[in-house]
Each structure stands twice: as C-alpha cells, then as structure tokens.
Design goal:
The chain is mainly α. It has one domain (3-151). 81% of the residues lie in helices and 0% in strands. The chain has five helices and no strands. It has helices at residues 3-8, 11-34, 42-68, 81-113, 118-151. It is elongated, with a radius of gyration of 19 Å. The model has no long low-confidence stretch (mean pLDDT 84).
C-alpha cells in the first residue's frame, strides 16, 4: 500500500468526522433554542451558542476538506479537479467566516465605518459562498453518478 492509497482511505472517515461535528452542533443549537431559558442564564446560553457555532463551522471545514482528499484504490468518492476546487473554496470561505469576527470586525469598525453593515454582509456572504460551493460540488458529483448509472457505465 503506497502513501497515496493510505491517505485516500482517510477520505470518508475524515468527512464523516466533520459531518458528525456539524450534526452535534446543530443538535446542540436546536436543544438550546427549544428549552425554556431559566432566569439569569442568558450569558451561559449565549456562550454555548457561540461555541456550538464554532464547532459547527469547524466540522463543515473538516467535512469539505475530507471530501477533497483524493480517494484511494477501490474506496472513496472520486471528485474531479474542479469539484475538489469547489470543496477547497467552500472550506476556505467557511474558515474565513469562522476567523473573520476574531480579526477583521475590530479593524473594519475602527476604520471609521461607523454603523455600516458591510462587515455583517461580508460575514453572511462567506457563509453562503461556503455552503453553496460545497453543495454545488456534491450535486455535480451526484448528477454524474446518476448519469453513469443510467448509462450503465461504472
């Protein structure tokens, strides 16, 4: 077994870890949102939401990068070069959305933008770009798989 095959065998497990992190974060957010808030625990609940948000975005980045790993011999999902680029773009945009509040918001607000909503719009745009690029790559690969099944080619 060569190193490329060994690395390729990690494609689906790494993507599964990312998907589990996203599922954990979504479940945590839904359970926090549906539970009644006791008096005086708004800070703790908000902090938990921020941590779950970070875990969810980190999981999404791991999921996208896991799928971008080239598959090994006989296992994994083989994405084309442009599809892998979309997966990398989605991971990069999502990582930027995770790091942007830590780095750029203070700089953008301090640069005399005042009450401008531009940083918020950029942050939301990064989330949309990340989700769309990964979604497009998965839909594109899924359409190729369905087409090859309909044509009878492996």
């Amino acid at each position: 077994m060569n190193s490329r095959s060994a690395l390729g065998s990690l494609q689906l497990p790494v993507a599964a870890v990312g998907a589990l992190l996203v599922a954990f974060a979504v479940d945590g957010v839904l359970s926090l949102a549906s539970a009644p808030a006791p008096d005086g625990e708004g800070f703790v609940r908000g902090l938990a939401m921020v941590v779950l948000y970070a875990v969810g975005l980190f999981g999404f980045v791991v999921f996208a990068l896991g799928l971008a790993i080239r598959p090994g011999e006989g296992h994994g999902v083989s994405f084309r070069r442009r599809q892998r680029r979309l997966l990398f773009a989605g991971a990069g945009a999502t990582a930027a959305a995770l790091l942007l509040p830590l780095v750029a918001f203070g700089v953008l607000f301090g640069a005399a933008l005042g009450d401008s909503q531009l940083p918020l719009y950029l942050w939301v745009l990064l989330h949309v770009v990340g989700a769309l690029s990964v979604g497009i790559a998965l839909a594109w690969r899924g359409a190729e798989a369905i087409r090859s099944l309909a044509e009878g080619t492996p």
